[in-house]
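pasting for the record
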Amino acid sequence: MDQNDINQGAGASREISDFREATGEEGLWTNSMFGGMPAYLISLNWSGGQIMHSTQRVFSLFLPRPVGENFMAFVTFYILLLTFGVRPYLAIGGAFGFGLSTFFIVSIQAGHMWKIRAIAYMPLVIAGFRLIFSKKYLIGFIVAALALSLELNANHLQITYYLFLLLLFYGISEFIADIQEKDMKGFANKAIILALAGILALGTNLGRLWTTYEYGKYSIRGKSELSSTSSESKDGLDSDYVFRWSSGKWESMTLMVPHVYGGASGVYHGKNSKMAEALRRNNADRNQINQYERLSLGYWGEQPGTAGPAYAGAVVCFLFILAFFFVDKRSKYWMVSIIVFSIMLSWGKNFPSFNNLMFDLFPAYNKFRAVTMVIILALMVIPLMGFLGLEKFIESGWGKETQKKLFIATGISAGIALIVLAFTNPPALDGAPNWLADAIKADRKDIIQSDVFRALFYIALTFGALYFYLKEKISVKLAGMIIAVLVLLDLVLVDTRYLHEGVYTKASNRTFLESTPADQKINQDKELGYRVLNLQDPFNEARTSTFHHSLGGYHGAKLRRYQDLISQYLMPEMQQIMEDKKITKSNTNVISMLNAKYILAGLQANAVVPNPYADGAAWFVEDVKAVESPDEEIQQIGQVDLAKTAVIDQSKFKIGAIEKDTTAQIKLVAYQPNKLNYEASAKSNSLAVFSEIYYPKGWKAFVDGKEIEILRANYVLRALQLAPGEHKIEFRFEPQAYIIGNKVMMVSSIILLLAIAFGLFKIRKQSSIIPQQAA
């Protein structure tokens, strides 16, 4: 599959992966994106985490991506249903319902592999909690500790955060039940076992979590140091950014009817649309018709765009409604509550009274964007409750009351689908002439109607299977098999609208990471340390990072100060270059400070424009502009010649007097991602500025073997104060979070494996003394 995020990730990690392959070391830092940033969330292998990585490989039967993730989702949900007492042949259908939900599949197509891996482990975590809440402490501890370790190892904290919200609802439900049963001792025991499992899981992932937490404080997920606007000064992301992807309220009906708002942005698979006929009558050619169909009949909801709907399945939704009549209140309350909660969260800005409160008050909620992702909780709990309800339905056996509930559930399910048809009023395309607007609206209505009838068809078939089981016309196993097949067909036939032959390509045809004539021309320059600025959407692409040290990149958590620099200087300077159609000293002041020696304006060799004003990998300045705050610091870098003057925040860094020396020289002589060597000479006290991004956690500077303080200059760069003479300078990136965290991860992983082995031995030993007839 030609997956965008996979392609971008490969480009972003090329420097790190090449360094790893060549040296066997971890680079930990890369200069390939945004001038330089830690590699923690780009590409990092943890030697202390190899045990958990190998465990994950075993768990997925060594299957390749993305098949391995699908398999894990099937297995973990199957195990979850077993812990809730669902019989195995029913649990198979539930596994299909979770692992083939359209949200899961379109996430694969988009290349969100860490996200789907985190989603795949969610059911196993809940299964561990379920076992502990059922007082099966030993096996519960093993499953919970292992599952939490694997979940954290997947390294998608947003999904894990949503999982903890679900566990909070589940835990509160159990706490209330224990209070009612006056079993506080039992709840205390459960809490202790869960805490031990959680601590062990944290230990197996300490380095990963520590580095992520540490980096987060300096990224756009942390607090801005600027006071220019109140919203930017808050700790976390801006609310507009968090809620940019928000589901429309009526869009939640896609859980049962997938194309309430069309399918995916820019995708239309229909034929003989009324719009096409109308356009042909007005002399539009085939290309124009295809373009209008993709634009108007792909997706017309309130999100900026989407890869597909959050479709749980008509069969699964019918079983969920049936479950209302059979699942015990204790389970029903927390399951329905988390479903409603997740749906309301997914509405984001379209339900401001609730979601603004969550944004302002709920811990760490403002660290994550694209709140539509939280719908995964509903997509997991709906089939969980649905198949738990199916188990209870089967247990209830033959009876008029059971038949009555089946008919009522069928009527409600069909009624909801018909309400979608009756009350969905798709809009026409804004600004379109009446003849075209009417055709578009009619086509959209036809798309909705087709999916409503489709939902009714699957509801009827599921009803038929259950009705014939009640009438004893078919066995319970056959009924379970029929439902599993219906779930499979229902979801797969929708999934293939998005994951189809068209998204696959031969490896030989993939051109994203192929070197262009422009890349080849730039790479003829063997000087160390220079960077490249791509004028074509540089801050949303990592292809440039494949071949060069780039001022741009593709990442959801770039450094906060660098983002400030992009907003206030890099974007305006780029705009000025394009307007002037030439490079000047005035329109490259900050671009040159970042040593962008080449400006890239296309793929051909003649699209490479040298920047003669690039300041180099390092330089000596003539004087210092002292400021007292970050606001002054970023303001002043736009008012001085950065090749001659360094802007230093003296409230943070103390600097002595320097003298101008026109003969001073400094040069980068050796480069690795985590180690840089320079040679310098000066006749007086001097300040060297390095075109390297300042990051306070891990970088160390050594001058002639002696460590000295790294200063921050020009808002984002490093600087060193040097005494007169010739010097050998070395920067090394040695973050303690990685060094210590790696060791703790190794020890914790060994403890976890020993705990699992001991637990399995005890369980086997206990089962061996059970009388044979009881066993």
